[in-house]
Amino acid sequence: MLNYDLHCHSTVSDGTLTPGELVARAAGRGVTLLALTDHDDTDGLAEARSAAAQHGIEFVNGVEVSVTWRKHTVHVVGLGIDPTHPQLAQGLATVRSGRGARAEKMAEALARAGIGGALEGAYRHASNPNMIGRTHFARFLVESGQCRDVKSVFNRFLAQGKTGYVPHEWASLADAVSWIRRSGGMAVLAHPGRYMSGRGGMGSKSMRELLAEFVAHGGDGLEIVTGSHTPAQYAEFARYATEFGLLASCGSDFHGPEESYRDLGRLPDLPLGCKPIWQNWPAAHVCKVA
Ligand code: AMP
Ligand code: MN
Ligand code: MN
Ligand code: MN
What we know:
CATH topology of the largest domain: TIM Barrel
CATH superfamily of the largest domain: Metal-dependent hydrolases
Strand content: 5-15%
Bound molecules: adenosine monophosphate, manganese (II) ion
CATH architecture of the largest domain: Alpha-Beta Barrel
Number of strands: 7
Order of helices and strands: EHEHEEHHHHHHEHEHEH
Shape: globular
Number of helices: 11
Strand order of the largest sheet: 1-2-3-4-5-6-7
Helix content: 25-40%
Oligomer: single chain
Structural class: alpha/beta
C-alpha cells in the first residue's frame, strides 16, 4: 500500500502547523511522498522540502489555487509546479491581493451581526497576513466563544449565504490551469464532492460541464480520495475520472491535528481501475529542487 498524500496545508495558508512540523508529522505517520499545497501561496515549499530531506521522505511542490467558476468557488491543486515561474508567481500574487479587502468586508458583516473585533481577531490567527481567510475568522469566533468548533462557525456564519460570507472573484479556471501547467506542474481538480453538496451546490450536469471545461483547459487529474469524500464518493468520482480521461489523485486536505476530517498518513488506496496522477513521475521530477 502506498502512503502518498498530495494535499495539505501549513501556517503559510490556513493550517496550524509550520511546514517543518507538518512534514515531521507526515513522516512520523508513514507518509512516503508528500505535497504541500497551501492556498494561493508557495512560501512554505522550501522549508517543507528541506524537512522532507531530513526525514527521508519524497516531496512534491504544490499549491491549491482558488478559482471562481460560474457562481461557484472551486479549488485547483497544482503538483510538481515551479514556484519561481513568473506567470504562476504573479498569478498567485494577484489572487492573494483581494484577501485583505475581503477580510475587511467580512469583519463589517460580522460587526453588523453584533460580533466586534473580528478583523484584528482573525489576523491574530494568520501567521501569513497575505493569506487571511475564512478559517482565521473561524478560529477567532471559536476563541471568542461564539461556536464550539471551526466546523460550526462555517455552518453558522461563514458558509455561502451565511451572515459573514462575502462573495469574491478568484482566478478563472483557464488561468489557474495555465499557470500550473506552464510552470511544469499538473492540475488536479480538488475535492469535487464538496461542490455538489449544500445549498447552491452543483448537480451532475454542472459537474460534467465543469469537468469538460477543466479538461479543455488542459486539466490533468481529479481528486478521488480526499478527507471530505465518503467511500461512495470515491467510487462516484472514479467514474467521472474514467469518463473524462482524468488521472486520479489523493490527499488528506489536512489543516491541523484538531481540525481535519482525516489525519496525515491515513488515506485508503485509490479505487481499482484509477490511473494515479504519479504514474509517469520520474524520481527526478519528484526530487526536483525548488
Ligand atoms: P477561503 O479561501 O478564505 O474562502 O477559505 C477556504 C477554507 O475554509 C477552505 O480551504 C477550508 O479550509 C475552510 N472551509 C471551507 N468550508 C468549510 C467548512 N464547511 N468547514 C470547515 N472548514 C471549511
Ligand atoms: Mn483551507
Ligand atoms: Mn480546498
Ligand atoms: Mn485544501
